[in-house]
Fold these 2 entries.
Entry 1:
Amino acid sequence: MSASSIPFTVSGGVVLVTGAAMGMGRLYALRAAREGAGVVILWDVDAAGLAKTAAEVTALGARAVVRQVDLADRTAIAGAAAECRAEGPLTLLINNAGIVRGALFWEHGPEQDIAQTMGINALAPMYVTHAFLPDMMGDAGRPRRILNIASAAGTVSNPRMSVYAVSKWAVIGWSDSLLLELEQQGYGHLAVTTFCPSYIATGMFDGACGPLLTPLMTPEDAVDRAWRATTAGRPQLIAPATAQLGKILRGLLPVRAWDFVGGKVFGIYATMDSFTGRGEKAGTR
């Protein structure tokens, strides 16, 4: 029986979660521990938050491996990856870490906002995956997964999210391409899932309001949906269903017609007007 025909499970395996100190990253780590992962590797810049998550993971029976990593620093990523590869090939890699700056484009600072957002949201998932992918490709004895957290903002443009949106467009394009490359080159044991949620009530998007018929998702619901899609090897999940509808309509309608429907009917273009995030004009997943 080939690995691609065996049901995916993290039981006894090694899971890496970036942005694991809080929010959805913490929930992914706890889900991995509950599902029987042997080792859960936790990466984040927040040392105190990492310690709390590690304690919870350990209490659930998994071994926690903690690394304080600045994902905007490629050298830090390479160093942490070199250490953590000793745990063995990853069974599941969750590229979860992300930040958002809610501001008009010209209000973004080139370094603090633009470079940091692109570095953490778009480049870090590629660097992290690049470091662990050879081992995951080379060990085909069991199914393996990569879960990349993108955003519905990467499918539908929105004011006050220009840099965040382009960072998530980049994740979607890269993640989809990686999936195709692995499939075409015969790595059937290794599947990639791209998760594109609308707003999630983690604190990252405090002050934002969901579009018409699109309430904020709970972190628990978002994590459960992403986990089940990853387990099934689903290539992409856009949630909730109204976010998928927005992507379809944007592709079908002329630009100005979509602007009217998306902006005036669904109210998408006003969703970030009162955004505060976890800090002034900023939020972290």
Note: The mean pLDDT is 91.
Entry 2:
Amino acid sequence: MTDQPGRGRMRRGIRILLILVVVLGGLFVAADRLAVSYAESQAADKIQSAKGLTDRPSVSIKGFPFLTQVVARDLNEVTVTVDNVTASTGGVSTDGSDPLHVARFTADLHNVRINGNFSSAVADTATGTALIPYSEVTKLAAGQLSGAVSNVAVGYGGTTSSGQGQVKISGSVQVPFLGSQQVSGEAPVDIRNGNSLALSLPYGVGRLIGGQTGMSWPLTGLPSGITLSGVQATPQGLQVSLSGNNVQLTG
């Protein structure tokens, strides 16, 4: 004869055990999410302080569970977004470095290995974008064309027949016997040597200022291992693509 009371007690025990597992699992998830939220907040504060940023960056640490990633000192993926940051370019100022305003910078870092005291890290791979407003491109172009072209303006020039974005450059040029003449035209923008923005000059503009064909500006201050992989002219500004391997992230 089957021991019905015994089987009932076993079923109740199993139910209690399952409830405990669910509760403990829920507590672990809650603790894990609290830990990742705290870590994201602390990372954002540290980046803002270290870089002297006006706006607080957004930091998102992905992957679950987070606590085991911390123990292993290896984060699966970290996304950092910063508004209103300043980079620099090799320019015409006396110290050879002109400030460059970046409206928004976003980086996706993969397999981020943290050192023993969590003060620095290395990302196996990284991709990102930087949005440079046309007001900044105008400033750079005006600096290089100073003395040859006045009232320089750079803006969005629409797309080519193949759908590639381009910029429009305009300005005033002094022409012998004709005086000041307004010139303008569309031109492509691209990446040179993996570290410089290159802007071609429309044929008419270049011919009037001695045959100059274009301008370029190296971007400095990027983390070690990061290169410029592409650029697209958009209505909002130049959208620069970034990529890298073994990217060094200092504290």
Note: The CA atoms of residues 43 and 208 lie 51 Å apart.
